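[job 4471] stage=fold_predict status=RUNNING
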Amino acid sequence: MATTPMMGAGGVDGAAPPAPPGTDMSGICFRDQLWLNTYPLDRNLVFDYFALSPFYDWTCNNENIRMQSIHPLDHSHLDKMTGVEYVVSDVMEPHLFVIRKQKRDSPEKVTPMLTYYVLDGSIYQAPQLSNVFSARIGRALYYISKAFTTASSNLEKIGYGILHPLLLNKFLFVYVEQ
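[job 4471] inference complete, writing C-alpha cells
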C-alpha cells in the first residue's frame, strides 16, 4: 500500500491556499493529475488527496490529529474533539467518494456544513440545497411566464386580446358550475 507524506498545517508546496470562510466554491473543481498518477485513489488515500484541495480547512480537527501522526479519519479521536471535521460518508470505489464537512459540538451532536464529492479524481463542492431549489423555482417561473406571454399574444391574434366583461362573467360562471 502506497503512503503519502504527512502534511503540516502550512500545507504542501503547490497546495492551494485556503479560501476565506463563507466563500462559495461550488463553481470550481480541483484535480491533481500528478498525485493521481502516483497514488491509487481508494478509501484509505482519498482524504490525503482531498487535503491538497482548496476546499480543505487546515484548522480542522482532522489536521490536528494528523500532526500527532494519527490517521486523520480516526473516529476514536475525532469523537472526543469539538470543532470542524471531515468524514468520508459514502464510497463507491474507485469512482465516487463523498466527504462531509461538519461541526462537532459534542460526541453525539454533529451539524453538517458542506458536502464535497470526488468523482473520478476531480473534487467538487456540492451545491447547497437552497441554491438547487432556488434555481429550479426560478426556471419553473420563467417557463410559466413564457407560457402566459405566448398565450396572451395568441389571444391577441384571434381577437381576444382584451376579454369582454360578459365573456369573462360567462367563463367564471361555467367554471364555478363545474
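[job 4471] summary: Residues 1-14, 172-178 have pLDDT under 50 and may be disordered.
[job 4471] exit 0
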